[in-house]
């Protein structure tokens, strides 16, 4: 068996792998959509694995007694009366590997989180730890047992009273509207169309076939469809079991969500802030299809499905759909969406040129396009790739298109990369066309010699910048001589040479018109020599273009210099001339070095273009994305090739669960298997080398309509601001796996919670009705970004504590400052990690995984905090800013542990004290910055030793600033923890003063966000950003 993997150059290579199959979702199985289905399945019984603390695993057959009073298993060495658990003794049913037995078991890593569950029973809170053969089966047992715990002997009555009443009444109303003649039946054609309207992703032929199968099974003659038949076929085709299992997790064991249940779901899972019941009612009114549900404020399974498939629950953060980043920084501080040979719509050697290339690129938000201009017939310049067989476009037509579409997708500046190969006569024609057609849009103000940086995108809104050759200031004639830029000649030469060592291409000279030269202001093209020369003499308005091969060498041999170069200067990288097929380089290879303009062949789809399109979706798709702070600050250390954590940036843990898919199409061009699809999903992480990773699900056989995967993955992200997540769906085939769809999204744009992800085709079009349903959680988020939106800390096993190190410069005065920072840095690290490590055992005691937030912890704990008299055993005193737990009598041992661990979680910490120490040391060290070179020379440092001292200074400054930022965010994290606890206590009526003081429902609906930080008196330091000049 083979599958395709992506090589460094983006090409797909074949690699052997073992075929793996998931049997959790075979299309012939009955869909579970009610508690009754779960109870019936439990009475029939199923094989489960019983896990013991000694790492022994026993295969047993578990079943529920017909009277629903006991849970039994067989075979067993115990007497039959002892190999059982009374349902009434069950305290809790816990999902995942969240008991001591699971956590300490030697085979923990071999057990799927989604297939594991535990039954907590008896006065001593014993646990029966079980593993099902599939996530579906685990969900059945968990759901059924929770119903039994809630309703006991009344379970059947409760189920019958709730059995699909809202769905039946809603579908009944629709059927009666379609049955205009009141004949009690409608035609199959009408029934098919009705279901198709409700679920557009279904194929007509499948719906029709289902009706015919249904009629055949009942020996029915005739083609009319009754109301009952219509409802049953809808139930079979449109029920999503994964939605049902999710609904009952929050429905207090009902078949619907009321406003309180929905409020809990929106806050605890979807990350919305302080949601009121009025907010939940708005959601119900918007998405609940049944009249009964709308009147009573209930959200049925169909309404819940509608909501989770709505734009509100898409994976992409809606805040990023508009410009949301600071657009007032210098142009060099942004990544700029760029196109290479924009005029081409196929390959670079023989392909046609067309103005549609410009239209498409500009509509997609591209902010840098290329014009390769040559002498044309009738004194009209033309655009094409010189020295090749590509076709030609008249220059003025391209100018017309640019004038029309330049600012359709974005108001921010457009860069025209002008490769001028024309004679002086046709250059004058070029100038006339540019002035006449583009006019005042062309930026004409010369750069100020006093400035050190380029203007900002905001300052240059609706302006066109010309990048090209420029005559020197001493030139007073109407033309002058400059060196030529000819990428086409480079490609042509390389195509004719078959050798490993290619000779350097001699620079040609040509005459440049002064009028055309004067149009170039902020993007003067110059040749790159080396980094020392550039640091010494290159001006901020001068721009170098790097061949992909040369840029890769710079990134490999001088990663730190390349990053520092791009802090002030613009760098453009264009594809290797050897890419005559117009294939694309990996833009991440150059973004990680800070290169702003990475020119892509827009006409060539695939992984690399997916990354480019996905990356620039953020910030309103305006074509400009602010680079990470560590790449912008003048004094900061960052190496593009880092394979470890980044100094001063706290790694994040990304938890992704691939739950299911909907309506996967057959791959284009495949025919061997007919309409059969065997899908599996890859989750890829793209970013700095330390972050690049991929994991895949098992294959689901013969199900492209609603395959259930139920697999969870975890990735460590060391530089979140530069990371991207790519979901790829492939069809498993013994001949060669085939592409179904993909979606690429920046890490910073992920929304937490249960989300639908739209799939796109190979060429970037949205696949109709094709989705991935996923769960996203981001934990241990500190060190920048949006901590209020994410989850909380996670402990990754026991490991030795790592402390930041200070490097020696061999400059005594400076080294003395950094030496005094060693102890505060160590103490600050201990403070942060102690707080982090306290959270994990608290989550474990609450019976939840590391992915959970503290609001979910208190909600899970609430069921155990009620005594025999229905009074709480523990309450939260919310009068103080920091909520405290107060026992209301004698506590069981397990709750005593909860109280002890909670006290550690709710500590205020000394974050501000340590942060002030580190900030003061940072400022003291920065006082030496401007004179550092002279001080090093006085100490006798020169050459490599001098460069090493400067690098060590930059490293130490980065560590100090990073640790100060981490402490600030750790303080915010503690406040976030306490805020979540505060609102959870109010929600669960566990506050000391009762629910009367609740404010959880007083806020109006807001966009998805977790709870705001507890307000505190701001200190001067917290209100100041650490700025490096």
UniProtKB/TrEMBL annotation:
Domain PH: 40-150
Domain PI-PLC Y-box: 516-632
Major site of localization recorded for this protein: cytoplasm
Keyword terms: Cytoplasm, Hydrolase, Lipid degradation, Lipid metabolism, Phosphoprotein, Transducer
Keyword Ligase applies: no
Gene Ontology molecular function: phosphatidylinositol-4,5-bisphosphate phospholipase C activity
EC number(s) stated in the UniProt entry for this protein: 3.1.4.11
C2 domain span: 632-761
Biased composition (Basic and acidic residues): 1004-1029
Claim: NAD is one of the keywords in the record: no
Localization: Cytoplasm
Entry-linked SUPFAM superfamilies: C2 domain (Calcium/lipid-binding domain, CaLB), EF-hand, PH domain-like, PLC-like phosphodiesterases
Reaction(s) this enzyme catalyzes, per UniProt: a 1,2-diacyl-sn-glycero-3-phospho-(1D-myo-inositol-4,5-bisphosphate) + H2O = 1D-myo-inositol 1,4,5-trisphosphate + a 1,2-diacyl-sn-glycerol + H(+)
Region span, Disordered: 993-1029
Coiled coil: none
UniProt GO cellular component terms: cytoplasm
Cross-referenced Pfam families: C2, EF-hand_like, PH_12, PI-PLC-X, PI-PLC-Y
CDD domains: C2_PLC_like (cd00275), PH_PLC_eta (cd13364), PI-PLCc_PRIP_metazoa (cd08597)
GO-annotated biological processes: gamma-aminobutyric acid signaling pathway; lipid catabolic process; phosphatidylinositol metabolic process; phosphatidylinositol-mediated signaling; regulation of synaptic transmission, GABAergic; release of sequestered calcium ion into cytosol
InterPro entries: C2_dom, C2_domain_sf, EF-hand-dom_pair, PH-like_dom_sf, PH_domain, PI-PLC_fam, PLC-like_Pdiesterase_TIM-brl, PLC_EF-hand-like
PANTHER family in alphabetical order: INACTIVE PHOSPHOLIPASE C-LIKE PROTEIN 2, PHOSPHOINOSITIDE-SPECIFIC PHOSPHOLIPASE C FAMILY PROTEIN
Designated name of the protein: Phosphoinositide phospholipase C
Species, as recorded: Hucho hucho
């Amino acid at each position: 068996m083979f599958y395709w993997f992506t090589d460094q150059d983006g090409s797909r290579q074949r690699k052997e792998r073992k075929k793996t199959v998931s049997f959790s979702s075979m299309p012939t199985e009955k869909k579970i959509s009610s508690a009754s289905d779960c109870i019936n399945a439990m009475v029939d019984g199923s094989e489960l694995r019983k896990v013991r603390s000694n790492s022994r695993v026993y295969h047993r057959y578990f079943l529920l007694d017909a009277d629903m009073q006991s849970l039994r298993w067989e075979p067993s060495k115990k007497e039959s009366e002892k190999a059982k658990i009374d349902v009434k003794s069950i305290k809790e049913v816990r999902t995942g590997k969240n008991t001591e037995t699971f956590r300490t078991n030697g085979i923990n890593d071999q057990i799927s989180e989604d297939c594991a569950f535990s039954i907590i029973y008896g006065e001593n809170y014993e646990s029966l730890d079980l593993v099902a053969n599939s996530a579906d089966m685990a969900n059945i047992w968990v759901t059924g047992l929770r119903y039994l715990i809630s309703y006991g002997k009344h379970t059947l009555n409760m189920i019958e009273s709730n059995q699909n009443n809202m769905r039946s009444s809603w579908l009944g109303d629709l059927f009666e509207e379609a049955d205009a003649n009141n004949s009690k039946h409608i035609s199959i054609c009408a029934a098919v169309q009705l279901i198709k309207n409700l679920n557009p992703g279904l194929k007509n032929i499948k719906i029709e076939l289902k009706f015919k199968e249904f009629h055949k099974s009942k020996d029915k003659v005739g083609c009319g469809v009754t109301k009952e038949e219509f409802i049953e076929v809808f139930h079979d085709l449109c029920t999503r079991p994964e939605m049902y299992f999710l609904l009952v997790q929050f429905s207090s064991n009902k078949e619907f969500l009321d406003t309180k249940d929905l409020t809990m779901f929106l806050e605890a899972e979807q990350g919305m802030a302080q949601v009121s019941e009025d907010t939940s009612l708005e959601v119900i009114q918007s998405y609940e299809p049944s009249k009964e549900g709308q009147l009573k404020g209930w959200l049925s399974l169909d309404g819940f499905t509608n909501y989770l498939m709505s734009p509100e629950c898409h994976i992409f953060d809606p805040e990023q759909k508009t410009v949301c980043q600071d657009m007032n920084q210098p142009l060099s501080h942004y990544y700029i969406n760029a196109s290479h040979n924009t005029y081409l719509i196929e390959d670079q050697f023989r392909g046609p040129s067309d103005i549609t290339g410009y239209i498409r690129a500009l509509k997609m938000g591209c902010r840098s396009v290329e014009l390769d201009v040559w002498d044309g017939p009738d004194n009209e310049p033309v655009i094409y790739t010189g020295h090749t067989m590509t076709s030609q476009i008249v220059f003025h037509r391209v100018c017309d298109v640019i004038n029309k579409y330049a600012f359709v997708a974005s108001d921010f500046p457009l860069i025209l990369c002008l490769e001028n190969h024309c004679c002086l006569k046709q250059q004058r024609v070029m100038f006339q066309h540019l002035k006449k057609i583009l006019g005042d849009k062309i930026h004409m103000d010369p750069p100020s010699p006093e400035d050190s940086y380029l203007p900002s995108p905001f300052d240059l809104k609706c302006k066109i910048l010309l990048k090209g050759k420029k005559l020197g200031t001493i030139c007073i004639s109407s033309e002058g001589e400059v060196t030529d830029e000819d990428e086409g000649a480079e490609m042509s030469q390389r195509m004719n040479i078959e050798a490993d060592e290619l000779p350097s291409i001699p620079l040609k000279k040509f005459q440049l018109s002064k009028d055309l030269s004067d149009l170039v202001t902020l993007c003067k093209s110059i040749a790159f020599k080396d980094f020392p020369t550039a640091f010494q003499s290159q001006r901020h308005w001068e721009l170098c273009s790097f061949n992909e091969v040369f840029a890769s060498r710079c990134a490999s041999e001088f990663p730190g210099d390349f990053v520092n170069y791009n802090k002030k200067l613009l760098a453009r990288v264009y594809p290797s001339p050897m890419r005559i097929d117009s294939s694309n380089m990996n833009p991440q290879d150059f973004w990680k070095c800070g290169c702003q303009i990475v020119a892509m062949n827009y006409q060539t789809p695939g992984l690399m273009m997916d990354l480019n399109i996905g990356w620039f979706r953020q910030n309103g798709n305006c074509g400009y994305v602010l680079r990470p702070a560590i790449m912008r600050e003048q004094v900061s250390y960052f190496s593009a090739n880092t394979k470890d954590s980044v100094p001063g940036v706290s790694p994040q843990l990304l938890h992704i669960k691939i739950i299911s898919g909907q309506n996967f199409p057959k791959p284009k061009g495949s025919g061997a298997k007919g309409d059969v699809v065997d899908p599996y999903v890859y989750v890829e992480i793209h970013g700095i080398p330390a972050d690049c990773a991929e994991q895949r699900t098992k294959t689901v056989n013969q199900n492209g309509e609603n395959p259930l995967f139920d697999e969870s993955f975890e990735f460590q992200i060391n530089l979140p601001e530069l990371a991207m997540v790519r979901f790829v769906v492939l069809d498993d085939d013994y001949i060669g796996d085939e592409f179904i769809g993909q979606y690429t999204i920046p890490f910073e744009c992920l929304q937490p919670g249960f989300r639908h992800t739209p799939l796109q085709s190979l060429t970037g079009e949205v696949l109709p009705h094709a989705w991935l349903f996923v769960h996203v959680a981001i934990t241990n988020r500190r060190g920048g970004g949006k901590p209020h939106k994410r989850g909380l800390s996670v402990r990754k096993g026991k490991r030795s504590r790592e402390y930041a190190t200070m490097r020696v410069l061999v400059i005594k005065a400076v080294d003395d400052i950094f030496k005094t920072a060693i102890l505060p840095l160590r103490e600050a690290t201990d403070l942060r990690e102690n707080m982090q490590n306290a959270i994990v055992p608290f989550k474990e005691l609450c019976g939840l995984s590391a992915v959970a937030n503290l609001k979910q912890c208190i909600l899970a704990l609430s069921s155990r905090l009620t005594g025999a008299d229905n009074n709480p055993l523990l309450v939260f005193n919310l009068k103080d800013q920091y909520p405290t737990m107060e026992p209301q009598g004698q506590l069981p041992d397990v709750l005593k542990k909860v109280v002890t661990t909670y006290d550690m979680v709710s500590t205020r910490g000394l974050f501000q004290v340590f942060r002030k120490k580190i900030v003061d040391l940072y400022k003291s060290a920065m006082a030496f910055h401007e004179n550092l070179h002279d001080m090093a020379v006085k100490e006798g440092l020169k050459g490599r030793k001098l460069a090493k001292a400067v690098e060590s200074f930059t490293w130490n400054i980065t560590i100090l600033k990073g640790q100060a930022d981490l402490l600030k965010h750790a303080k915010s994290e503690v406040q976030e923890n306490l805020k979540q606890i505060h609102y959870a206590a109010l929600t669960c009526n566990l506050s000391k003063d009762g629910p009367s003081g609740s404010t959880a429902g007083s806020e109006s609906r807001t966009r998805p966000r977790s709870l705001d930080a507890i307000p505190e008196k701001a200190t001067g330091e917290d209100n100041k950003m650490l700025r490096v000049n």
